[in-house]
Amino acid sequence: MEFFIDSADIEAIKELNAFLPIDGVTTNPTIITKSGRQPEEVLEELTEVLSEDQKIFAQVIATDYEGILAEAHEIASLRGGKNVLVKIPVSREGLKAIPVLKAEGTGVLATGIYSADQAFWAAKAGADYLAPYVNRMCNYGDGVGQVVELVDTLALYGLDAKVCAASFKNVDQVHQLLAAGTPAVTVAPDVIRAMVDHPGTAIAVDEFTANWQKAYGRTTLRA
Length: 223
Ligand code: E4P
Fold this sequence. Notes:
The chain is an alpha/beta fold. The protein has a single domain, classed as TIM Barrel (Alpha-Beta Barrel). 52% of the residues lie in helices and 17% in strands. The chain contains eleven helices and eight strands. It has an eight-stranded parallel beta barrel, surrounded by seven helices. Helix 5 links the parallel strand 4 and strand 5 (107-113). The structure holds erythose-4-phosphate. Erythose-4-phosphate binds at residues 6, 26, 28, 30, 111, 131, 133, 135-136, 166-167, 186.
């Protein structure tokens, strides 16, 4: 399975990438604006802090078919095209652009997905990844359940698209989708930190160290 960081915060990406086996970074226009920096600068830095084996996902801003294709070509040329994928919203224009980009060999993630039905069409159009917005879907019903069902539906029809569940707001949403075998997730740094840093672990480690210190007068295995 693949685990991506959903962020354009370079410091947070460096922090997490230093100790977790991260498969890449997803961005969207809002995420990039939140960085308070110019998009070219952010994308360039992403290519510097990530290895070529780690995927970078950047989204088109244009909403018309020709504009989507032009921006997709620009994004796909980043880092010589190595593991750079284009995010395309599943609008009518976006769905029209996806097979064209696929035929050209461009990696595509269909985004802005609010239902398993939209995801189904994007998969049929040839998208490599499908990003259902889990938390936003939860505002309308069982977002987690719909995504689990989507993974099964794709398998049923032998559609190659991978679900990359997105828009998580808490650890439990991620947990449920990981437990259901979702092939990829993209998660914001604060939720990733909450998955990793359990206060109980810190307390246990402090206790081990204190007991060792008391018994042997040192905090290392050997003197
Ligand atoms: C993923 O790449 C999506 O764009 C992102 O997870 C959306 O998250 P939001 O619902 O917090 O905007």
